[in-house]
Design goal:
binds (3R)-3-hydroxy-3-methyl-5-(phosphonooxy)pentanoic acid, 7-stranded mixed sheet, 352 residues, 8 helices, alpha+beta
Length: 352
């Protein structure tokens, strides 16, 4: 699909309406880090969509009022977030031509702790894009489910890149790659379930909250620093190349290769941060202690516990539900929880 196909209908019939939607967060296995104009990713990425970490959003649209946005997070007014959403709505007017013709009261809440550092922008923009598509269907006419979902993913991407992957369950690809039919830089697509071994269809993601609170460098700034990173082109090429083994691994269920590739992707993301100018490090002491303990545990037990990281200090502990999970959970509770700030762990699953 081309950008032209996402342009909105000029005829519409607006009215005051309240809609609600929910959207989960996601965790990337092959990472997106670096982008071009209009949120075009520098390389393709693939993620797991989480089942429990979600944003629930209620959007009240008051028709024919001066355009304004008011946002509340768990009942508290968030002025900064409202400014961000106002800018975002102005930016997507060509795709939803009615969007500036009213005022909005947006109430959101996350099912995970606010200060946890879990990416709320993916689930947040995903839920907002879904609400907007609900309003659009009511004002401009019904679309097919597929069309509506694709456009919601397209719109979510313009809010926060990785948000476009949160619109789908299971494994999701964003960014054009010859390895995945139908993949696009403009929106995400679901990775074919028939191409995925059962071992990956029931997975755990326990997020260790190593550091709660604001990150020292936002992901917007981090993406921007890839523009001058001398290793950026090689990294983009590597991520593209990594789709070849990833496809084979997902099909065959080869857990050892999966672990190696996923951990390599996480460490490469953080290596890119360290090689930026100015350099920055988002990992904390606890992050490194946990990684070393995971490696020791694997050496000693051969059990499939491994990690990935997003743009922060928290560690996503990944392990399949293959019968070994009780031993892994006992180890996490006994050895890894102590490296979190307040015994903080968010226990999620990816089942599809
Ligand atoms: O969507 P953004 O701009 O918050 O960037 C997300 C980047 C990573 O989480 C580090 C990787 C990814 O692919 O989700």
């Amino acid at each position: 699909m081309t950008i032209q196909e996402f342009l909105g209908k000029k005829e519409f019939n607006i009215h005051t309406q309240t809609v609600s939607e929910s959207c989960p967060s996601n965790i990337a296995l092959i990472k997106y880090w670096g982008k071009y104009k209009d949120q075009i990713p520098a390389n393709p990425s693939i993620s797991f969509t989480l089942n429990h970490c979600k944003t629930n959003t209620e959007m009240e649209f008051v028709a024919n009022e001066a355009f304004s946005v008011q946002t509340f997070l768990s009942g508290n007014e968030e002025v900064k977030f409202a400014e961000k959403i106002e800018k975002y709505f102005k930016n997507i007017e060509q795709y939803l031509p009615w969007i500036l013709q009213g005022k909005y009261i947006i109430k959101t809440e996350n099912t995970f702790p606010h200060s946890s550092g879990i990416a709320s922008s993916a689930s947040g923009f995903g839920a907002i894009a879904k609400c907007l598509m609900k309003l659009d269907e009511s004002f401009s006419g019904k679309k097919s489910d597929e069309e509506s979902l694709t456009k919601a993913s397209f719109l979510a991407r313009l809010g926060s890149g990785s948000a476009c992957r949160s619109l789908y369950n299971g494994l999701v690809v964003w960014g054009e790659t010859d390895e995945v039919k139908g993949s696009s830089d403009l929106f995400a697509v679901q990775y074919l379930n028939s191409e995925v071994h059962d071992i990956f269809k029931d997975f755990n993601d326990w997020v260790l909250l190593i550091h709660e609170g604001e990150k020292s460098v936002s992901s917007t700034v981090g993406h921007g620093l890839m523009n001058t990173n001398p290793y950026a082109e090689r990294r983009f090429q590597e991520a593209r190349e990594n789709f070849v083994p990833m496809k084979e691994i997902l099909k065959s269920g080869d857990m050892q290769r999966f672990i190696k590739l996923v951990e390599h992707e996480a460490l490469t993301l953080h290596a890119m941060m360290m090689m930026s100018d100015p350099a920055f490090i988002l990992m904390k002491t606890g992050t490194l202690e946990v990684i070393n303990k995971i490696w020791d545990f694997r050496r000693e037990t051969d059990l499939p516990l491994f990690f990935t990281l997003d743009a922060g200090a928290n560690v996503h502990l990944l392990f399949p539900s293959d019968g070994s999970e009780e031993k892994i959970k006992t180890f996490i509770e006994a050895e890894l929880l102590q490296h979190t700030q307040k015994n903080g762990v968010v226990k999620d699953v990816m089942k599809f």
